[in-house]
Predict the structure.
Amino acid sequence: MFKILLWAISIILLMVSQSYAQNVPNHDRIKTELEQIDKKVLEYKDSLKNEINYIWSLEDAKQITSEQAAFKKDSVANVYAEKIKNSVAISEHNISTEIRQRVDDIINNKKSNGALLIDHKGVRIETDNDSINRKKGIYTAFENGEYKKYRSEKRTTSQFVFAFGFNSLEIDGNIKTNEFTPFRSMFYELGATYNTRILKESSLLHLKYGASFMINKLSATNDRVFSRDTNGQYALTNTGIDYDKNMFRNSYLVVPVHLEFDFSKKKYSESLNKTFFKSHQSARFGIGGFVGTHLQTLYKNKWEEAGKNHKEKYSSSYNVEKFIYGLSAYVGYKETSLYVKYNLNSMFKNQAIDANLISIGIRKDFN
């Protein structure tokens, strides 16, 4: 059974290799013919040089006259000129046959490995894969003795955005970092954005806009929770319960808009006479803001008392602002950035003292 399998694999590999050999790109065959021309011409030139040197030696030895030497030299030169002409003609025929066959395939819409292109750089062969890749924004160019690939982006591209980080509140100009547990007071953002290059010939300025689903969590220290007094004012108060978990969560749907400065360099291909732009390849930063609407508020509390576990879950408006807006900015390299957001309106409605949410974290923009 193993021998049969081995033979089958060998036959398949042989068929693949033969198929590949039959479909070698035409530019390789043409290159081989040109190399053969150079080789033959050099060989005939060396032979002609040896023949002429021999005739001169006969003349120097007085074995033939000057007139005889001149006649022999002309005869030998004509013979080798004819040899070179015939040799080159064979290679020229092979090259022209390849080109005619390719042109016939293109005209008759036959399946082929490539297309013949004639431009200001001369004749070159473009493969079917090159044609398919060009539709995807991938171009192949022969430069400095090797093939290079260039990838071009559309003027407007799309990204998947994921961000996470830490939350706190700014009250009376002070950021209350000690009032909340850092790794429980987190934000998460998941969304999609469009990134439009503003300038036609520069990749520096982009307008970035989209939509995101955002979750903000706050977990107060010292077993405190948000509670509302008789005047409708919210404050953190201690309930006397030793909480294992107390989490105040709000979810939003937001529309972020940023002016992005992208320092990715553009690339120019001389052989293709084309400039290529690609974003998120270098340092970049964005400044802007966001607007959004509140979706849900959820309060989760968990504690243990008298050997029993207790859980509470409340879903209510908690007088949270339904419409939010704020400022945001990010700075980073390639797809990773440091991300900062600040809500310009208070988290709760109609409060004597504003409590503005501030967030800092990491943002990933996946092209």
Confidence is low (pLDDT under 50) at residues 1-25, 109-125, 128-132.
